[in-house]
Amino acid sequence: MRFTLLYGAMFLLSGIGLLAITNLVGLGGTRTSQSAPPGTPPTEPTTLTAATDRIAWLQTQLSDTHTAQSRQLLIGSAVALMIMSVVSVVLGRIIAGRVLRPLRTITAATRRISADNLHERLAAQGPADEVKNLADTIDELLERLENSFDAQRRFVANASHELRTPLATMRASLDVALAKPEPIPAQTAALADRLRTELDQIDRLLEGFLTLARTQHGALTDRTTLSLRQLANTALHSRATDITAHHLTVDLSADPAGTTDDSAWTQGNRTLLTRMIDNVIDNAITHNHHGGWIRLATTTDATTAQLVIETGGRILDQEQVTPLAQPFQRLSADRTHSDNGSGLGLSIVAAIAAAHGGTLDLHARTEGGLRVAVSLPAAAVPTETAA
């Protein structure tokens, strides 16, 4: 629109200038024609009175003719100016579209290129002008991004083996040292238990790093249709011992908003979605007070499948809850009376949800506790399940 107005104004000003010059030249020629050409001898009148009347009549005729010509010229100029206004807008629109067409093509192609098809290029054709230079610069940027993503994927592929091997060696060395037949000093046994605990914590932290990196920088493959309700039930069943140890009450009733529970079908990678729900359940169990409760609900609408898990507890500040989706963000240790978490649990949940086109919403309940809602694109119920 700005280019249309700019080009239209330029065409219109050019038309106004052209009409102004035409009017000045036309009116100047008309005024010049009122006087007799120089060097022409005057005609001798028959009588002075007749000559005077003749001159007055001629002057009147010339004045009327000049007025009529001026009026016709102004009317013609006004009509031409109106026509020129319309033509200017049309021409401005055409030229603006022509100028911006390559930029629209570049914009559409750039939006189409994502992390999964960074190998594509704009490959703009045409003369070496500013637009082609812009397209070539974007191609170079895409090449650097592709190399960076490839490096990240190679790191994720190799880091698991390279980093887990020293941990396994250290754990095996501890087991060998403790398995010797001679008596082990109590202080040594306590130190070995402490080291084994720290190694387990490092192992969990490493696993969280790798999952987060794989989710953020890896291609999402092996999609299948899954039920969030079934995955959540499996996670709760496998953690029945921990739930009992904390004396927690699990409520699988309907969502507090009044919507009906269902299986909440979605499409995604089974391993990642299982890890996502496991982290949410672990967070609800670990970050809960003794004798507390967990409420789980799944809902589905036309476009979204949602898993909602609520826990009770003390009243939390929303400003403290919101950053929990970022790595290494924790609430104060007095919430759980422990600080054994790696600070990656909910950040992994957020990354997996984002990789599947969903969102993670963390909300501090006004009654106390936390509400965790994972929303993913809904999928149709599998045929065999519906049957």
Automatic annotation (TrEMBL):
Gene3D superfamilies: 1.10.287.130, 6.10.340.10, Histidine kinase-like ATPase, C-terminal domain. It is an enzyme of class 2 (transferase). It holds the Pfam family HAMP. It comes from the Bacteria. SUPFAM superfamilies: ATPase domain of HSP90 chaperone/DNA topoisomerase II/histidine kinase (SSF55874), HAMP domain-like (SSF158472), Homodimeric domain of signal transducing histidine kinase (SSF47384). It catalyses: ATP + protein L-histidine = ADP + protein N-phospho-L-histidine. The chain crosses the membrane at residues 6-27, 73-96. InterPro entries: HAMP_dom, HATPase_C_sf, HATPase_dom, His_kinase_dom, HisK_dim/P_dom, HisK_dim/P_sf, TCS_sensor_his_kinase. Keywords: Kinase, Membrane, Phosphoprotein, Transferase, Transmembrane, Transmembrane helix, Two-component regulatory system. One of its GO terms (cellular component) is plasma membrane. The keyword Phosphoprotein applies. The keyword Transmembrane helix applies. Residues 158-380 form the Histidine kinase domain. One of its GO terms (molecular function) is phosphorelay sensor kinase activity. Residues 97-150 form the HAMP domain. It is found in: Cell membrane. Its EC number is 2.7.13.3. Coiled coil: none annotated. SMART domains: HAMP, HATPase_c, HisKA. This is histidine kinase.
